[in-house]
Design brief:
By secondary structure, this protein is an alpha/beta fold. It has 3 domains: 84 residues, Arc Repressor Mutant, subunit A (Orthogonal Bundle), CATH 1.10.10; 91 residues, Periplasmic binding protein-like II (D-Maltodextrin-Binding Protein, domain 2), CATH 3.40.190; 101 residues, D-Maltodextrin-Binding Protein, domain 2. It contains 11 helices and 12 strands. The strands form 3 sheets. The protein has a 5-stranded mixed β-sheet. The radius of gyration is 32 Å and the shape is rod-shaped. Keywords: DNA-binding, Transcription, Transcription regulation.
């Protein structure tokens, strides 16, 4: 038996003193209201209305049951209201700062079509993790090694002058002891200031004889880009970022750095839903054009 539906019919009929008017108020046909109230009477073990009267008159038993029925109906309505509010509540998601405004807007639009209201928070990798751990967001796009990633973005080196070779080797930045020429640097942007990217570049630099200061971490992507646009320095970045800056991009010789991303969430269902329903939009934001190819 539909206990809530039966109580709704019972409350409306009792308030209007009519099965016809009560059914209309409950937005159900009159025969349905009658059947629900009859079922409720059988369930409770007593008559709620005096059927001998012309109007719907409550019996003493019905008067005793009416307050409880009203409370049950009110609780059901409150539950429906809370459920609607929960469905419309924004899903706060921390995303990489490298995501473009247009791509994030397209991601938000795709989420709305799936019934997900995103509240996006761009941040660098450590801040995204901190936001999740502090429960300030429900999920984050975390930076992870390539073998743990749902999406990957190959990285290379970009420079103002077009390289003659198919790859850029870090040993070409090495200078001798007697050289007075300013040492060229490789700039790492905050998005790549994570061990599985940064440390590989540093180890390679050390192995080919670069000075520690020749592999530098910038405070912001724009700061790193400014250094490269004003010098012969190199920027560790994706091919898309290089195109955006008008730089010449090549793979890095001797190493294949990769950005890896996966959704992390306090609730596993949130992570699964984001990766399942928003895979294409996130791939576009991250620079991994095809989520299947990027796995």
């Amino acid at each position: 038996m539909d206990l809530v539906g039966s109580c709704v019919a019972f409350v409306h009929v009792s308030e209007r003193g009519s099965f016809t008017l009560g059914a209309a108020a409950a937005r159900i046909p009159q025969p349905v209201a009658s059947r629900r109230i009859a079922a409720l009477e059988r369930h409770l073990g007593g008559r709620l209305f005096d059927r001998s009267a012309r109007r719907a008159v409550l019996t003493p038993f019905g008067r005793d049951m009416l307050p409880s029925a009203r409370r049950l109906v009110a609780l059901a309505e409150a539950m429906e209201h809370d459920a609607e509010r929960a469905r419309l509540a924004p899903l706060r998601l921390a995303v990489p700062e490298v995501c473009g405004t247009r791509e994030l807007a397209l991601l938000g639009a795709a989420a709305l079509r799936r019934g997900i209201h995103l509240d996006l928070h761009p941040a660098p990798p450590p801040a995204r993790d901190d936001l999740l751990h502090a429960r300030q967001v429900r999920a984050c796009v975390a930076a992870v090694p390539a073998d743990e990633a749902a999406w990957t973005v190959p990285l290379g080196l970009a420079t103002r002058a077009e390289p003659r070779s198919a790859a850029i080797h870090l040993e070409t930045l090495r200078v001798g002891r007697g050289d007075v020429e300013e040492r060229r640097r490789v700039w790492i942007q905050p998005e790549d200031d994570v061990p599985h990217v940064r440390d590989r570049i540093r180890r390679l630099g050390e192995s080919v004889g670069l000075q520690p200061a020749q592999v530098a971490v910038a405070s912001a992507f724009t700061a790193a880009a400014a250094q490269v646009l004003d010098s012969a320095d190199l920027l560790l970045c994706s091919a898309a970022q290089a195109r955006e800056l008008g730089l010449h991009w090549r793979p890095a010789g001797g190493v294949d750095p990769v950005r890896g991303y996966a959704v992390a969430a306090a609730d596993g269902e949130d992570a699964e839903r984001i990766e399942r329903d928003l895979a294409e939009g996130l791939a576009r934001c991250l620079g991994a054009a095809d989520p299947e190819e990027a796995r």
